[in-house]
# Entry
Amino acid sequence: MRDTISCPCETPALCDSCTLSLSKNGVELDEQIIYLNTSDKQDQVYTYAPDIGGEERVPVFSCYVDAVFNGTDTDVVQLMYVFLIDSGVLEINADETYGAMEVMTASSSQILLENNEDAIDLDEGSTEQIMGNIHFKTADDDRAIRFYPMVEYSKPGTYEIRGNVVDLMGGAQSVDLVWDATDLAGFWYGLDDGLKTEQLKLLAGTINNVAGDRTIDENTLVYTTSPVYHQYELNENEGLVVDSDNPGGDTGYHLEGFMGEKYVAMNGMADKLCRLLVEFEDYDTKTLATGEAWDLGGGFCLIVQQINLNGDEAWLSLEKDGRELGNGFVSTNATRKDRVYTCTLNIGEEKWIPVFSCYAAAIFRGTDTNVVQVKYVFLIDDDVMEIETHDAYGVMEVMIANATHVRLENEDPIHLEEGCQEGIMRNIYFMTADDPYAIRFCPLAKRTIDDEEPTPPPKTILAIDSDGDGVPGAWDDGSKTPEGYWVNSRGIGGCGGHEWRPYTHIC
# Structure
């Protein structure tokens, strides 16, 4: 839209007319002189109403010219109540299809679509298109059919995820108002197991439309969350455990939603959280060549340092920001538990926390390339968020933070002003209708898709191993290693078979 201003005044002053011009893609569509000195305020309204879509005089653009000012250097027009629709018309006709849906009725009063000819299969762990970017997402659970409709966005931008709307037009709020992941999709929800941990509660009697009370007083808005157990894919599918400080290892871990984000609760403690960076499903696999650095995100990478001459044992190492955190061996020629590599760290004042684990599905040593295929990959960040009492998140203050649960309450009043959004905590808000006769509002979460290019992973080292010691030539300081030697990541080592473990340590 382009505004062109023409004003007859010769000195800086308020003017009584201007010329507005509307353009699209550089082509002028319309031009009109607007007068402000008449007795009819309707003369201050500019409307562009062309014939489009077989309809006559459709209002495409309108605005109200509130003031015109002729300045020494700049002429200014102040517009209000601007309205604009696209002049491109989408005409919907019967028998047209949108995804799995067919238009059964298309009239001036309603549009009706049905999946008339296409069946929609709610297969376990699937996402099936309904129409456009609307899908059904189904849990990966063979014991239940658990699913929900969802809208998928991929374009960069900030999107609002709205919760259930409350309408207090009739009077006072007589009961607690409660939202969880069922009615606020911005909260974390584990579909495969039906897991949810977050709850936002507005205590009864807080809001009263009859009395004109739109204020959420201190300590009347309550947010709570707590950990919930989740089984490792490794244990669910292979019956194996992840090494830890617990006798016999861990069969699972604890998840916790916190302000709409998914976290792992260390040792099941609600107040010590780590971000979950990688969690393979049962069907996911990754194949790595020796020397290849697999970027896992968060600065972490997994490297296959070498594979033995028999092609049944591999040496893996986990690094973060170029620093090794741990290393270990996986084998396909021993017990099934020898296929599992776990890196444990002492973090957040807790010991032997399983930060990374994977399962070696296959190991292969070839003429030109040596590879390892891993499954059930699991990785959490070693940066721990410790939640403490009196911590503030937006207008919310932590009142309780212990191993079992976290509770926050609003330390400041929240005013549900007409037509406004009020921040609660992080990216969670209250949105209120622009309606003076009712208090109609809902919680919402904002999610942003960045348009930045992803950081490229570290360059892969070519897996050329001239002396057959399992170390790429680019790293090999001992380029003529005798046969039978077991070496470290630099090609340096000693004889003695696979029991020799250079540089191995428990992290």
Remarks:
- The CA atoms of residues 188 and 501 lie 43 Å apart.
- Confidence is low (pLDDT under 50) at residues 1-12, 454-463, 482-507.
